[in-house]
Fold Replication initiation protein.
Amino acid sequence: MADGTCSFCGDTTVYFFPGGLCVACTGKAARIKLAETLKQQSSELTAFDASVGTMHAAARRSEMAVAKVQQH
């Protein structure tokens, strides 16, 4: 992680989440339990995490709506 790469997939990234994960791995591997104790985040990072979570949830709701429309 010190060199700017994700600790899970190894891709180069700018934003890191708990455990040194990139945005893609945070979404894909959300069930990975981190063993280390995490440091307190700044309010800016907390807000960023919340906005990314909201964005992922909105995208998923859209996917589910499209799938439901295609079924009928």
